[in-house]
Amino acid sequence: MTGTREDQRLLGAQLLAEAEDVSDRIVTWRREFHQFPELAFEENITASRVAQILEALPGMKVHRSFGVATAVVALLGEDLPGPALLLRCGMDALALDEETGLPFASCIPGLMHACGHDAHMATLLGVATILSGRLHDLSRPVVFLFQPAEEGRAGAKALIGAGLFERFSIDLVLGIYFRPRLPFGVLALRPGTMTALSDRIHIEIQGTGGHAASPHRAIDTVTIGAHLLLAIQNVVSREVDPQETAVISFGQVEAGDAYNAIPKEVHLWGTLRAFDGEVRDLVKERLESLVPLIARAYRANAHVEYAKNYPSVENDPERTAELMERARLFFGDEAVEVMERPVLSGEDFAFYGDQAPSVFMFIGTGETYDVNHPKNDVPEAVLPLAAAWQAFLALTM
């Protein structure tokens, strides 16, 4: 379905009304998923519930465990001509203790849907519900992908390796992300680079343990770790071209079991975010040479495990332009933002762009807390809007 601009505006209004009609179900699903978060490749309860909901929809063919045990892929309009459109969302949660105070907060200590995947899944189920009732309006097949292991474990790569694109003849991939600090209901995207590349860094420091009162008889791995953390920031501030972008952050430190004992070893885990592969290569080389030398100066040993994890998300320019035309009809000009620069977040949606044209976009939640924060929440009023928008794209792209 395409039609005139006025036809498309009317379609958008109709879809918004249909999304509101199923909003109670969307919210219920979101709260279910939020209460029972599961980590990457462990989304067993989540996947089972997603598949159960999809299998109840007319015309939907559901493939459980496609390529990955917890993946769910559903196909609508299997007999329609032409290549398929893929709509994708993530499923996994983060290892965080929730602090939202929501009545439907996580029931699993130490786990939380801090990135909004609970809302993404519920929204995509809403899209599937709307489109199932409009099967006669579809011009080509639509694939709904509920993807495991987005949070640093490259679930997208595993599904691609299992033949996802060949099996479903996909020629366009779309994904949304609910973004705090962006005004509520605003759509933001840009052609070309949308997100940063995202790598993983692990540093292991080996010294000699000892009593806290006798540091001269030990090799203090904690102090050495502090020196390394500061020296690594110097690589970014003094060795990377200041006109380039790079950030290194360490979010996990493992050191010892007692407050009064110097531990024998320390582990540091962190991430690099950048936009340029040459910057990545420079930082990687400097870390691999600098870290062992600094540790050796303090009589310890250290080594770096550097893993190139996610590439940058690259929005296809032509399909992005088409999508933005539709966005202005659906949201209105004032609620569509062309981003001046990409964000430093990482996304394994990037792997899909190597297989077919893809577009990744943000929908603002207006919230204060960033993603990955234990108080981050997705306002439920945005869910039917996002569901109607994705249904609109499925019917017009």
UniProtKB/TrEMBL annotation:
Q: Which Pfam families match?
A: M20_dimer (PF07687), Peptidase_M20 (PF01546)
Q: Which cofactor does it need?
A: Mn(2+)
Q: Which residues of this UniProt protein bind Mn(2+)?
A: 115, 117, 151
Q: Which GO annotations describe the biological process of this protein?
A: diaminopimelate biosynthetic process
Protein origin, superkingdom: Bacteria
Domain Peptidase M20 dimerisation: residue ranges: 201-291
UniProt remark on cofactor binding:
The Mn(2+) ion enhances activity.
State a single Gene Ontology molecular function.
N-acetyldiaminopimelate deacetylase activity
Annotated InterPro entries: Amidohydrolase, Bact_exopeptidase_dim_dom, Peptidase_M20, Peptidase_M20_dimer
Name the UniProt key words of this record, in alphabetical order.
Hydrolase, Manganese, Metal-binding
Q: Sorted alphabetically, which CDD domains does this protein's record hold? A: M20_Acy1 (cd03886)
This chain's protein is named Amidohydrolase
Q: Which organism is it from?
A: Aminithiophilus ramosus
